[in-house]
Amino acid sequence: MKALKSFVFSRGFKLILVLLLIFTGYSFYTNYKEIKDIGFAIKEMEEKIEMASQKNLELKEELAYLNDPSYIEEIARKELGLVKPGELLIIPVEEKE
């Protein structure tokens, strides 16, 4: 018992205890920092997912608009000069001065 008591109060034991506390503190700090960094990365990814989902929704809406028959007809009339059967296309002639 006396030998154990003298070992507990010896410099070697105190040094080992201090080193153990330093190692434990350092391990705790590095793990905490890593968890914090991972949390930040997760938050960034969630924001990117939200932005991508919003962009995806916008593109789906645009695709639905571009595939709408009335829009296709409008483009065919304006840009291609097409007419429906039975309609006449009238092109105004500009007068030169």
TrEMBL record:
Write down the InterPro entries for this protein, in alphabetical order: Cell_div_FtsB, FtsL/DivIC
Q: Which domain of life is it from?
A: Bacteria
Organism taxonomic ancestry? Bacteria, Bacillati, Bacillota, Clostridia, Halanaerobiales
> What keywords is this UniProt entry annotated with?
Cell cycle, Cell division, Cell membrane, Membrane, Transmembrane, Transmembrane helix
Q: Does the keyword Metal-binding apply?
A: no
What name does UniProt use for this protein?
Septum formation initiator family protein
According to its UniProt entry, the protein's GO biological process terms are:
FtsZ-dependent cytokinesis
Listed GO CC annotations: cell septum
TM spans, by residue?
12-29
